C-alpha cells in the first residue's frame, strides 16, 4: 500500500478532487450517519483541504481552517475516512498530516476541533483535551477539544 496526501486551497482543487471530497463527506456524514444537514457551509472556500490517498484512491480528507472561521483558533474539521479504508490506522495518519498541515499553512498555535464525543479518546491520543460540555450537533453528541 502506498500512502500520500496533498493540501490544496479551494481554488486549487480540480473538479474531480472536489467532487470526490464532497461525495465522501456526503456518503459518511449524511448517508451513513443518517444525518441530513447542510455540509456546504461557505467555509470550504476559505479553507485548505487535505486529501489523503491509499494507492491513489481517496481514502480520507479533512478541512484546515484559519483562525476566525470556525473558532478563534486554527481548526481542523470535516474529518472523514472512507468506509472502504477503515481499520488501516488511517485516522491517526490523517490527523497527524492535518496537524502538520495546519502548522505549515498557519504557523504553530493551538488547534480547536468540534469532535464527535464518542471519538474524544482518539483525539486525546493526538494531544487534544476536552473543553466545555457535550453539545448536540445535528443529533450527534459533540465536544470542543483543544490541542495547545
TrEMBL record:
Coiled-coil residue spans: none
Domain N-acetyltransferase: from-to ranges: 8-148
Any Pfam family hit: Acetyltransf_10
UniProt xrefs under InterPro entries: Acyl_CoA_acyltransferase (IPR016181), GNAT_dom (IPR000182)
Protein name: GNAT family N-acetyltransferase
Amino acid at each position: 500500500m502506498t500512502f500520500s496526501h496533498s493540501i490544496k486551497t479551494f481554488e486549487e482543487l480540480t473538479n474531480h478532487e472536489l467532487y470526490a471530497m464532497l461525495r465522501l463527506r456526503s456518503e459518511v456524514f449524511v448517508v451513513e450517519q443518517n444525518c441530513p444537514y447542510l455540509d456546504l457551509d461557505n467555509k470550504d472556500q476559505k479553507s485548505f483541504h487535505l486529501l489523503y490517498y491509499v494507492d491513489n484512491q481517496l481514502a480520507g480528507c479533512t478541512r484546515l481552517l484559519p483562525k476566525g472561521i470556525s473558532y478563534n483558533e486554527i481548526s481542523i474539521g470535516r474529518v472523514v475516512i472512507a468506509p472502504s479504508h477503515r481499520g488501516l490506522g488511517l485516522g491517526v495518519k490523517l490527523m497527524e498530516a492535518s496537524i502538520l498541515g495546519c502548522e505549515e499553512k498557519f504557523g504553530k498555535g493551538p488547534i480547536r476541533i468540534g469532535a464527535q464525543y464518542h471519538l474524544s479518546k482518539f483525539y486525546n491520543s493526538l494531544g487534544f483535551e476536552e473543553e466545555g460540555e457535550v453539545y448536540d450537533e445535528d443529533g450527534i453528541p459533540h465536544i470542543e477539544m483543544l490541542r495547545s
